[in-house]
Write a structure and sequence with these properties.
Blueprint lengths: L5 H8 L13 H16 L8 E5 L10 H9 L5 E5 L5 H14 L5 E8 L10 H4 L5 E8 L6 E9 L9 E2 L14 E2 L1 H23 L8 E4 L4 H11 L10 H4 L6 H11 L8 E8 L3 E8 L1
Parallel strand pairs: 1-2, 1-3, 8-9
Antiparallel strand pairs: 3-4, 5-10, 6-7, 9-10
The structure holds acetyl coenzyme *A (ACO).
Length: about 300
């Protein structure tokens, strides 16, 4: 379709394979699948869920929210449901909100999902973007626990000065310009911003919790590009073996990267009960977030 090569993609992005959803599959279908796994692993009843937060910028429709389709799909009749739009940072926005809502005492059980089908909004004639994205979803059940475990510190931020669609975004499809459109990106600028913003965000939660980099057992950064991941790890002073990477298998699944990586890390035994994990991400907006959690 475009002038590119497997070698260029592997060298410049670290991606060697990725998943692309069939035409008749929507984001909520992936989210429901992930949510069912999370509910099973957490040994809860869907009726226990009080809030569903779905982080996505590729919703099934503008409205109803994708979260409402997820609610129907999993039979979580007692939940309030809404979407979060924070691009690739969306899942950590969801975790931050869930953490705050649970700490407020109003909620006990919140389902946070990150899911995207970017491949329906990429321009398959644009080699700058069409080689990068994968479709996928991940989900987590967040519940109150004792203070020594779970989310120890969390931070999210954004900078609307960078809400420029030439940098990263979709120019049309909303009230500014209703016609549907495809994603566009200035990859080089986004690269530089990611390498600066993710270490800064990570440092914020380390300071909040008074934890040093040496205490971290595994860093799980947003999986957009292998070179960005390695640069973020190096800037933080993390040894390479403590940086989790799966961008090679999935590409950039936007709001889903961090939760898919966390799930895989747990299944593979790379993240074990008691481990201290540092999650960090950034995305269009610009938005960013970091979470420090004890498994
Ligand atoms: N195949 C072959 N050549 C390509 C391709 C391609 N797929 N894409 C770009 N090129 C060319 C460019 O045209 C350019 O050619 P030129 O020198 O003749 O102009 C050359 O390769 C180098 O281009 P750069 O943009 O400088 O390449 P770079 O090394 O920066 O890699 C990339 C591009 C992979 C996009 C990188 O910049 C990147 O990963 N950026 C961050 C992307 C990212 O994180 N996006 C997601 C953000 S999260 C969210 O919210 C969605």
């Amino acid at each position: 379709m475009v002038d590119t090569s497997d070698e260029w993609i592997r060298q410049r992005t670290g991606i060697s394979e990725r998943r692309i959803a069939e035409d008749d599959v929507a984001t909520s279908d992936l989210c429901i699948h992930a949510a069912r796994w999370a509910i099973k692993n957490a040994h809860i009843d869907p009726l226990d869920i009080e809030m569903i937060l779905v982080a996505t910028v590729t919703p099934d429709r503008f409205f109803p929210s994708t979260a409402c389709y997820v609610q129907k799909g999993i039979g979580a009749k007692n939940a309030a449901a809404m979407d979060i739009s924070a691009a690739c940072a969306g899942f950590l926005y969801g975790l931050d909100l869930a953490d705050g809502l649970i700490r407020s005492g109003r909620y006990n059980t919140i389902l946070v999902v990150g899911g995207e089908i970017f491949n329906k909004i990429v321009d398959w004639n644009d080699r700058n973007t069409c080689v990068l994205f994968g479709d996928g979803a991940g989900a987590a059940v967040v519940q109150a626990t004792d203070e020594s475990k779970g989310i120890l510190a969390s931070y999210i931020g954004s900078d609307g000065d960078y809400a420029d669609v030439d940098l990263l975004g979709i120019p049309a499809g909303g009230s500014r310009m209703p016609k549907l459109d495809k994603i566009q990106m200035n990859g080089r600028e986004v690269f530089k911003l990611g390498v600066r913003l993710m270490p800064e965000a990570a440092q914020r939660v380390l300071r909040q919790a008074n934890v040093s980099v040496e205490d971290i057992d595994l860093l799980i950064p947003h999986q957009a590009n292998l070179r960005i991941i390695e640069a973020v790890g190096d800037r933080l002073g993390m040894p390479r073996e403590k940086v989790y990477i799966n961008v090679d298998k999935y590409g950039n699944t936007s709001a889903a990267t961090v939760i898919i990586a966390l799930d895989e890390a747990i299944r593979e035994g790379r993240a074990k009960p008691g481990d201290l994990l540092l999650l960090v991400t950034f995305g269009a907006g610009l938005t960013w977030g970091s979470t420090l959690l004890r498994l």
